[in-house]
Amino acid sequence: QPRIFSGIQPSGGLTLGNYLGALKRFVEKQEEGIETIYCLVDMHAITVWQDPAKLRQQTREGAAAFIAAGIDPKRSILFNQSQVSAHAELAWIFNCVARMGWMSRMTQWKDKTAGKNAEAASLGLFAYPALMAADILAYHATMVPVGEDQKQHLELTRDIAIKFNNDYGVDFFPVVEPLIEGAATRVMSLRDGTRKMSKSDPSDQSRINLTDDAETIAAKIRKAKTDPDPLPATVEGLKDRPEARNLVNIYSALSGQSVEAVISEFAGAQFGTFKPRLVDLAVAALSPITNEMNRLMADPAEIDRILGDGADRADAIARPILEQVYDITGMIRSR
Ligand code: TYM
Is 163 known as a binding-site position? Predict the structure, then answer.
């Protein structure tokens, strides 16, 4: 039967991109009644330096965002990666299955080391996708909702599953299916329509954070880069207008209307008309989440309790799968 796994790095505060591309869809999957396992991948976060106190805070804040967005920690499993050791253990096995060449071809690795000394990057950053494959396959998850930027990592997860099965002559790991759906699979920066909105962008103006208040959201959208033309009359007309297309996509994802419907409503409108409507929509969608996050963050012990409970339930699924992996690979288990 289907099982969903997905994760978010607590390497910074979550953005509108994470919300529309991931979190909002995680909630939809939970509501569809599919078994859902969601993880704050703290071990992925430390592939680049993280201040320990901030990492702890960001992990709790990430958990609060999941719950505030509608993840019910009773119906879904919600935990942080490092509390379930199966992730690290299976990642080691996958480090021995995956090839150096596969990892070198990952665009995220290439982007993160572009123009820098790759020799100074952590070994963990290079091996990152093997840990991601372990996250998913430790649960025999079959469906993984993600944004567009994770597509290549999921293809690699499939390659690892296939190679493991071939090398050991078993039909053990399932071939996972990426779920990259909706109008906001790639939300772009508010400052540059050709770059992804990212928690690690040095400019805070480039993104909307889930912790931003209404005034901040309004100011950021008002200042968002656009071209001087009014909105086009057809979807085709957005083709060479990355900033306009991005704002329309965000509007579509927030309102649940199709891009076509948004375009037909705003055909010929100036951004001076469109942007205030987008602000209203964004504030209406995000402010209840921000408020609920703030409420939850007042009780960090309760968040930690939820993560611990989730980790217990995650471990109960992953541990027997990992024991089978040890058996398949010829590791003696005698205690
Ligand atoms: P991360 O933490 O960068 O992002 C979390 C999720 O948010 C999506 N996302 C976006 N979607 C649309 N527009 C954007 N601008 C945008 N930015 C981020 C991402 O695609 C992702 O779905 N490697 C993963 C975390 C991970 C994972 C996993 C995911 C670790 N193990 C196992 C799925 C399954 C990452 O860095 O996501």
Answer: no
